[in-house]
Amino acid sequence: MEFAKRLDNVSGSAIRAIFALLAQPGMISFAGGNPSPESFPKEDIAEISASLLCENGSAILQYGGTPGIGSLKSTVIDMMKSRSISAKPEEIIITSGATQGIGLAAKTLVNPGDVILAESPTFIGALQTFLTYEADVKGVEMDEEGMVIADLEKKLKAYRPKFVYTIPTFQNPTGRTMSFERRKQMVALCKQHGVLILEDDPYCDLRYSGQPVPPIKSLDDDNVVIYLMSFSKIISPGLRVGAAIADPRIIEKYNIAKQGEDLHTANLSQEIVNAYMRSGKAEPHIESISAQYRDKRDAMLKKMEEWPESITYTKPDGGLFIWASLPGHMNAVDLFKQCVDAGVAYVPGVHFFPEGGHENTMRLNFSMASFDQIEKGMNILKGVIEKSI
Amino acid sequence: MEFAKRLDNVSGSAIRAIFALLAQPGMISFAGGNPSPESFPKEDIAEISASLLCENGSAILQYGGTPGIGSLKSTVIDMMKSRSISAKPEEIIITSGATQGIGLAAKTLVNPGDVILAESPTFIGALQTFLTYEADVKGVEMDEEGMVIADLEKKLKAYRPKFVYTIPTFQNPTGRTMSFERRKQMVALCKQHGVLILEDDPYCDLRYSGQPVPPIKSLDDDNVVIYLMSFSKIISPGLRVGAAIADPRIIEKYNIAKQGEDLHTANLSQEIVNAYMRSGKAEPHIESISAQYRDKRDAMLKKMEEWPESITYTKPDGGLFIWASLPGHMNAVDLFKQCVDAGVAYVPGVHFFPEGGHENTMRLNFSMASFDQIEKGMNILKGVIEKSI
Fold first, then answer.
1. Touching check for A370 and chain B: CB below 8 Å?
2. Dihedral through CA A370, CA A373, CA A374, CA A379, nearest 10?
3. Tens digits of residue pLDDT in A337-367
4. B residues 80-99 near A, CB within 8 Å?
5. What pLDDT is recorded for position B19?
6. Cβ distance B71 to B272 under 8 Å?
7. In whole angstroms, what is the distance from residue A384 CA to residue A389 CA?
8. Does residue A16 carry a pLDDT above 90?
9. Which residue out of A72, A262, A272 would a mutagenesis test of the B interface target, given it has the greatest number of B Cβ atoms within 10 Å?
10. Cβ atoms B296, B374 nearer than 8 A
């Protein structure tokens, strides 16, 4: 059986092997990126769902339009105002999660061999998706303030990329937030080089400390930014609803490309998200999960203070992840096996780097585990690390 | 702005122009392929949805696995038994409608320039999707019994296609059903040439007359068939749920390719479909909509008896469509404008042909319009045609 060349370099098997291990009974997982299972407003959504279907079931159960439901687009427009982004309906398409917005960027913009720049490290799912479109992903160095602008400029010139993929706020996997100054520099540079920016922003509402930093899209007066938002982290990832905001010509291409994927995002998911956002319940809900995640972040960071001093780690102001760097001689891939045997899992950092390497790094998720699991799991992790250091 | 080459040949603008017209007040539409809006079991689904979310909301609202929910896969396996198809869980992936199963076939199997064979005429959505993967779609002649086997054999030899796309039962757009004999010949030929078959079967449960013909997949002892089923026509298209059944190696590739689209089909949609299929309500529901569509088909066919004798048309045993051929000198694209001005719409047949032409043909949908609309719309159509013949 001969498959398409575009899938040759994609297996995802290492990551899937990790996630298969999480199914083991009793395993404490700091590996996923899932919201806390207690965080979902399931009773509210049950009530909303039943009432929507009774009132408007004939339309909800019928085929919908590919761009998405108009009232949800209006809701997204309203939400964007608080992020200093102004958008018109023709600049929006509802997507099946921000994930689809990432895939559609590659599908509509990338020819085989084209370069995409991305933070090094970056989101594994995006890396895999870019590979399925035969993109050549090059990493841009990052520090505590996000992408290093000098390295970005060098690589914009050297590679003439199709776009720059960035998660500027509470980045996956590092938890870092790009500074306001860097955001301005990034827009100016990309505009100057005629290169688009794909800004993936699923975590921005989950802020636990520090001051909000406006999205790159809000600094964009020339429509060089494709902005991806998501309802996965603030309501539910299982409903699969997000949106892309961009130049209408890009949205038009997204529309055509989405027709050959799922035709449209499930109407019931769209209507539930819309009704919930307009119910007055979303804001207190987001405050409540943020408070919970803040405490979990603090609990995990507190345990990390007990780790050997040679280990460095990020202290994120929001999002779901902490990023740790062990001493250079240590290998978080080897260590992973010992940790799993001892009952705790994380994701070795190597998988997040476009060019590999950095075997001494690891990503820790603090949203999914309970406080007890954080306490117990971090103790196990410390024990294994101390034995190997 | 420079887009990917794969989207160069796809605009869909002719079709979208047609569907934009349908929004005009009072327009009678025989153009769509939608289920009747009265056909949806909205109260049952409202009840099921609320109960699922209350009982199992934490899992439903969380991320799911890309292959789909296990219990829904079991339901699909059970449904397939009545179609004489036996499938194992690793041979199934839940898709966001059969549409996604079509797109994933192209994504996982087609390199730019590869040939796909398809019935001439065939489903517009599939044609457009195949173009986005830069496939070269060649039409295979068809008659009342489906694909003409001699032409299929000639083109299998001439083009060495990546796969043959077929809708063997109540085909879109013709309403025709491929005979059992032809199905056997098709499997044998494709097996002999080492060519896969993509069998798209969304309509098979909507049979109004004649005897069921087993799917091509049921005659396949060598896993050459990728079988696509859908819940869109029997429960709801707005939920976006279907499934693909194929060789586990193909399902594995579908799984990887779907990760970069929507990650997984919305859990709530999957759970609703599963619970509804297991509720005991699905069978009487399908019988009830079939009875309704049978009457609508009969109403439309009865009106067509009044048309000039030089017009031929199909008399489908099921599905949603009738296919009409006007005398060769007539042009259904020109006629379309007059019909729309007079308040009735259809889809000109030319759009369904991989190589174009056949401007004298038209597709008529009978499921969406009410009986009154069928009566009135068919009178208008007859008047316009008689003036132009």
1. no
2. 170
3. 999 999 999 999 999 999 999 999 999 999 9
4. 96-97, 99
5. 76
6. no
7. 9
8. no
9. A262
10. yes
C-alpha–C-alpha distance, residues B7 and B134, integer Å: 8
Element (DSSP H or E) covering residue B344: strand B344-345
Task: Note the pLDDT tens digit of each residue in B89-130.
Answer: 999 999 999 999 999 999 999 999 999 999 999 999 999 999
Q: Residue B245 pairs with which residues in a beta bridge?
A: B92, B227
Tell me which residue in A11, A34, A128 faces B260 most closely, judged by beta carbons: A128
pLDDT tens, residue by residue, A130-165: 999 999 999 999 999 999 999 999 999 999 999 999
Listed residue (B37, B96, B277, B237) closest to A239, CA to CA: B96
Q: What pLDDT was estimated at residue B17?
A: 76
- pLDDT band of residue B25 (cuts 50, 70, 90) is confident
Question: What is the model's pLDDT at position A278?
Answer: 98
The answer to whether B205 touches B172, Cβ cutoff 8 Å, is no
Helix H, strand E, coil C: the string for B34-98 is CCCHHHCCHHHHHHHHHHHHHHHHHHHCCCCCCCCCHHHHHHHHHHHHCCCCCCCHHHEEEECCH
Q: Do A62 and B238 touch (CB under 8 A)?
A: yes
Integer Rg of chain B from CA: 21
User: Which amino acid appears at position B86 of this protein?
Assistant: S
Q: Quote the DSSP letter at residue B238.
A: T
Is the Cβ pair A250, B1 closer than 8 Å? yes
- Count of CB atoms within 10 A of residue A71's CB? 12
B20 interfacial to chain A (CB closer than 8 Å): no
